[in-house]
Design brief:
Layout (H helix, E strand, L loop, with lengths): L5 E6 L2 E8 L2 H12 L6 E8 L7 H15 L5 E6 L2 E8 L2 H12 L6 E8 L2
Parallel strand pairs: 2-3, 5-6
Antiparallel strand pairs: 1-2, 4-5
Helix pairs in contact: 2-3
Length: 122
């Protein structure tokens, strides 16, 4: 996590985070790390996701597919990428797999947005 790019302000148990991070996973890690500190009552997340170098759609697609294979070996998830905007499609047996797929997409550098159209059911 790029600590030098994140500023924090603390007032009466409320922490405000400001700055930029490269991807959604860094944003979540920063917010979660602060929220676990004793005495923190609330976290205002004003972090901006600003990917470092631009990544091509094919590279993003390949990274998401590899992450999906690692996290949930399901072949029924399709991925489409258009200028960093990801759409997840397909069908899984349980909701946790749907969430894992979305998390894998958001955690991939270069992703600007995710639309999760994965259906749950047999």
């Amino acid at each position: 996590m790029p600590e030098e790019r994140i500023d924090s302000i603390v007032r009466e148990g409320v922490v405000t985070l400001k700055g930029t991070v490269d991807h959604w996973g860094e944003r979540m890690a920063a917010r979660d790390a602060v929220a676990k500190i004793t005495g923190v009552r609330y976290v205002n997340d004003h972090l901006v996701v600003s990917p470092a170098p631009p990544r091509g759609d094919q590279q993003i697609f390949d990274d998401i597919k590899a992450a999906l294979r690692r996290r949930s070996p399901v072949d029924d998830i399709d991925v489409a990428v258009d200028r960093g905007a990801v759409t997840l499609m397909g069908k899984v047996l349980w909701y946790g797999l749907r969430q894992r797929a979305e998390q894998a997409a958001w955690s991939t550098p270069g992703v600007r947005s995710v639309v999760n159209k994965i259906l749950v059911g047999a």
